[in-house]
Amino acid sequence: MSKHINSSRRQFLQHSMLGAAAAAFPGLLLAGNGKMNRTATPGFIADVEIEFAAQAAQVNIFNSGPATQVQKFIATLRKGPPNTLTQLPGNYLGPILNFQQGQKVRVFFNNNLKEPSIIHWHGLHVPQHSDGHPMYSINTGEQFVYEFEVLNRAGTSFYHSHSHNLTAEQVYRGLAGLIVVNDGDEAKLELPGGEYDLPLVIQDRSFDSQNQLQYLHAMPERIMGFLGSNILVNGKPNAEFSVKSRAYRFRAANGSNSRIYKLGWEDGTPLTAIGTDAGLLAKPETRPYIMLAPGERVDLWLDFSGRKAGSQLTLYSLPYSGVMPGMYDRMHKDGGGMGMMHSRLPQGGKFPIAVFKVSEKVSDSPKLPEKLVSFQRLTERDVDNAANPLPIAISMQHMKPLLNGKSFAMDRVMDFEKVALGSIKKIKIFHDHDSAGQHSGGMGMMGGMQHGDNEHNGESGDHKMGGMGGMGGMGGMGGMGGMGGGMMMEMAHPIHLHGQQYQILSRNAAKVKPADYATVKDGFIDSGWKDTVLVMPGETVEIVKPFQDYKGLFLYHCHNLEHEDLGMMRQFYIG
Ligand code: C2O
Ligand code: CU
């Protein structure tokens, strides 16, 4: 049986590997004149060509008061089906990109900002050169050309800027948008389409009295992740949808920097998902609530059938606990010292996201299909390293969140981060705070897993982690005594891997506080394809990921964007 996951592999891949080979040693390229800006490849015949720009803009987010200064992706279609771009008027979000599986896409990206930028197509499986790796960041006035074939099956993805150290603030200021991929299998399902297929991009922002975006760079902020005081849906506050009494498809995406949502209806009606991240599920999943961490998407089937015209229903983020470091929850309960914790909406608090007003009674509605799409369910038998999973160890050292004991370095790959092209690997994502506290760099577990670290890296010196020592910069936050080592800073992290979608093999929550876990566990949908997974403090998540089609450097990182910019990012070299 073929273990190849994508059925639509084309000749094109051969061609794109040349690009990957040239960039196989980015360190060398970076040491040159840094000219990595791609130009159009004559042999690549694009079905779709889009001219993209990142630029400063003013948009009316609020109905009254001054316009807001934002950074915005603007796009014009040069070639391709006229419905390729759906513009969201009066918005900082870029247009929705509507792609068909199999299309060849060329994007001319122009950076009109006063700072470097690059776009990553989060969820799409594209060659290294078109994946928005930060090494490709371009400067003001420069152009970068992306070329890729849409290999993905139908699903929802999310493009955003990915320039290292600038990602969090650029996404915050607006540089993001939704990608919709359609395919033939999906078309057969006759899911709600057109006006019944809508985006639900959820973000939190803070504004000053002049409607200007506030972003804070102070250390407690960055280490916890930025939490805004206003919830925006599709770029607007106080979101309201006028709906008919029938079924809708809402493509929810968490485009927040660090806020985690627990989506649920006010009246306790369960929620039904038909897709997770970039893929449709095998069958719908109905849950009392659905967790949505930064970078995650969930395709919701929201059915208003049977509801009265004039009635309304509010989608909430429901309360949960345990994702933040112990001191955060504790300080919230005490209500003390929260001034510096910045948000009127605490992580895990209850607040409304959007109101759905049933404006019209209709008699007809599509029926929820019992089965959606079929795909191979990956198991341990499909991997070549069942007993020796690739590690993604989460730890914290000197107020820096790390992966595998290291910070991101543009041109570094550790031995065990080199993966054979075409292989399918088991990957174990776990918290390694114990060894971070006792050893240097949290690499203690690595030896046990037979992964050598041949990289010389000054960061894993012999400093003692010392949770308390590391907290020196957070003076003024009282009430933290009694928690030792890295455990004190243990928090939930949404772990995102670039490249192909993966599947969740298992979760082990034995070390998670049961009372906390009970508030989130029913909201994890692990039966489909994923590219981002929320890992609770103490939790271990095993995934199966194919590394097919493209050679080169593919990032893995925390999608808490403050963490990502703090260096909680590494990369695989597929070769
Ligand atoms: Cu959505 Cu590497 O990011
Ligand atoms: Cu994180």
Automatic annotation (TrEMBL):
<dbReference type="InterPro" id="IPR002355">
    <property type="entry name" value="Cu_oxidase_Cu_BS"/>
</dbReference>
<dbReference type="Pfam" id="PF07732">
    <property type="entry name" value="Cu-oxidase_3"/>
</dbReference>
<dbReference type="InterPro" id="IPR011706">
    <property type="entry name" value="Cu-oxidase_C"/>
</dbReference>
<keyword id="KW-0479">Metal-binding</keyword>
<protein>
    <recommendedName>
        <fullName>Multicopper oxidase CueO</fullName>
        <ecNumber>1.16.3.4</ecNumber>
    </recommendedName>
</protein>
<keyword id="KW-0560">Oxidoreductase</keyword>
<feature type="domain" description="Plastocyanin-like">
    <location>
        <begin position="75"/>
        <end position="184"/>
    </location>
</feature>
<dbReference type="InterPro" id="IPR008972">
    <property type="entry name" value="Cupredoxin"/>
</dbReference>
<dbReference type="GO" id="GO:0005507">
    <property type="term" value="F:copper ion binding"/>
</dbReference>
<comment type="subunit">
    <text>Monomer.</text>
</comment>
<feature type="domain" description="Plastocyanin-like">
    <location>
        <begin position="489"/>
        <end position="574"/>
    </location>
</feature>
<dbReference type="GO" id="GO:0016491">
    <property type="term" value="F:oxidoreductase activity"/>
</dbReference>
<dbReference type="InterPro" id="IPR011707">
    <property type="entry name" value="Cu-oxidase-like_N"/>
</dbReference>
<dbReference type="InterPro" id="IPR045087">
    <property type="entry name" value="Cu-oxidase_fam"/>
</dbReference>
<dbReference type="Pfam" id="PF07731">
    <property type="entry name" value="Cu-oxidase_2"/>
</dbReference>
<dbReference type="InterPro" id="IPR006311">
    <property type="entry name" value="TAT_signal"/>
</dbReference>
